[in-house]
Amino acid sequence: MSTQQFQNVALSDGNSTALPKAQSSSGRQVLIVDDMSTTRVMLSRYVRQLGHQDTTASNGREALELLTSQKFDLILLDVMMPEMDGYTVLETMKSDAEFRDIPVVMISGVDEIESVVRCIERGAEDYLPKPFNATLLRARISACLEKKRLWDELGENYRRLQELERLRDSLTDMIVHDLRTPLASFITGLQTMESLGALSDLQRECLSLSLDGGQTLLSMIMICSISAAWNKAQCLSSTRC
Amino acid sequence: MRDDGAPEIIADLLNAFKADCLPLLKSMSQAAKANDAATLRKAAHGLKGAAANLGGRAMADLCFNVEQQARNGVVSDVTEMGQIERAFEQLCHELEVEITGDAMQQIASGRE
Predict the structure, then answer these.
(1) What digits encode the pLDDT tens for the residues A139-175?
(2) Which of A50, A132, A206, B5 has its CA 20 to 30 A from that of B37?
(3) Distance CA B7, CA A141 (A)
């Protein structure tokens, strides 16, 4: 009996004790694109065994249509297909900011290494050689999904950081505004009192100390305001913010 | 040891395999008659991949030879086409035996 490959496919899920699932990356959406039904059935089975959801497409055009209507965490993409091949799908994805970060693993025959190299140069994450090896397949799918999960997490943390920065700037603006206005009135009042004259030496000394303190506080508030404006300008000039 | 869904999975694979291979076998045969090396190469390439996926080494090797010859512009003869068809039938038969064997085993274990 030479049907080793379908024996691998039909292996019990109990086999996962030897190959544990990546818990943190489970339940992800995987798009399988291949014109051969056999390959789609096999890969769907593997993907489900790993605890993920699968969607299949039989050519590149169908895959691009699915990409616009559903979110995917990984694409398993055949190179040679009718209607639209894997190269075109890969190039379309990598030129579109919405799909650029979705990892693509190319599916190829062992005699198609040149095509695979071409795809990796164009942004494919990895490749899966046919006939499939269950261990290699699981390892590559899990590694790609884990990388995507960490990348998504990094993106989410960066988005939160930006929100916190915006919150900090708003708070600074509010504090500066709320302190500066009454302080300016306070200093003006003291300056008016000073200009009126007829003050004792002690009164003049107290007034002078209050005015100095008020001016120092106003300078500190102005520095805070300038610093916040500088940070905002830095953020705007950088593509990160 | 397989899981409870093993016969269904193999049946799905067998159906998919037939759906892939039957049109390709026809295409290969027509291409051979029409002396069309390009179509013959594509069909042999597809058959080779489908067979290799299921561990059908004999069929994959035969298809590989036809593909390589076609790549050099040589169109294989009827004998080689016949060998591929027989290898295909043999692989389908092996899968059917697997399905029947697993189903019988499940019925037997259900009675225990």
Answers:
(1) 999 999 999 999 999 999 999 999 998 898 888 888 8
(2) A132
(3) 25
- Closest to B99 in 3D by CA, of B51, B52, B54: B54
A57 in helix, strand or coil? strand
Ranked by mean pLDDT, the top range of A169-178, A217-226, B81-90 is B81-90
Between chains, do A2 and B58 touch, taking CB under 8 Å as contact? Answer: yes
Preceding peptide of A131 cis, ω within 30°: yes
Chain B residues in contact with A41 (beta carbon < 8 A): 12-13, 16
DSSP sequence for A76-144: EEESS-SSS-HHHHHHHHHTSTTTTTS-EEEEEETT-HHHHHHHHHTT--EEEEESP-HHHHHHHHHHH
Question: Please, are residues A31 and A55 in contact by the beta-carbon 8 Å criterion?
Answer: yes
Q: What is the pLDDT of residue B40?
A: 93
- Return left, alpha or beta for A54; rule: phi > 0 is left, psi -120 to 50 is alpha, else beta: beta
